[in-house]
């Protein structure tokens, strides 16, 4: 599964990458800080296409923010979202929570890369020690994860014209990990290649078989993985140091004994 990722791309770069007109970038995108430890329920950047209200046969591509953890439109409350951070490719077209969104509300979730935890042979208190890895495009490009989004009506807000009346949420689609990454974890997020952005985002396309054909695991060598500090395991930690490879000696900075602070005697 995909449960953490990093997102620090400049919105201006995303506008170019996903061919979005400057006027179609929500203010919330500009206000969102870099996040090197994106966790479920966090606000994240998403690329979506919506029908043009004045011309229903036309679509408009937008850069917006959504909350990670999909809340179906029929949900009684938002608590279900924390359990729907991922959608399996194998069942996404049939599952009630995802079926409608898969048909008409697909999105791209830009990322620098994502984290997975590998169970080592080391034991701590009888449990395997898990080593986090950061997985990213080998060429340093943007990782466009396949996602779905939903819009949930907050009935506690009477005025439907207010932004608070609607909650936008998302989920990440996953598949069986490729051979070179399966050694770390058996699942991985599905990626959408640039030549398939248009077809994946198009809300006018809804044939499940055609949509599933757009989704293929990353090609061998497309991604690289390396061990990072266990500091990422705590959502309290954030910053670019989380995606730094472990030092050559392999010793995790969080495992190094802290040197005592020097005191000055007067």
From TrEMBL:
Its EC number is 3.4.-.-. It comes from Kribbella alba. Residues 237-266 are annotated as: Disordered. InterPro entries: SRAP (IPR003738), SRAP-like (IPR036590). Coiled coil: none annotated. Belongs to the SOS response-associated peptidase family. This is Abasic site processing protein. Keywords: Covalent protein-DNA linkage, DNA damage, DNA-binding, Hydrolase, Lyase, Protease. Pfam families: SRAP. It comes from the Bacteria.
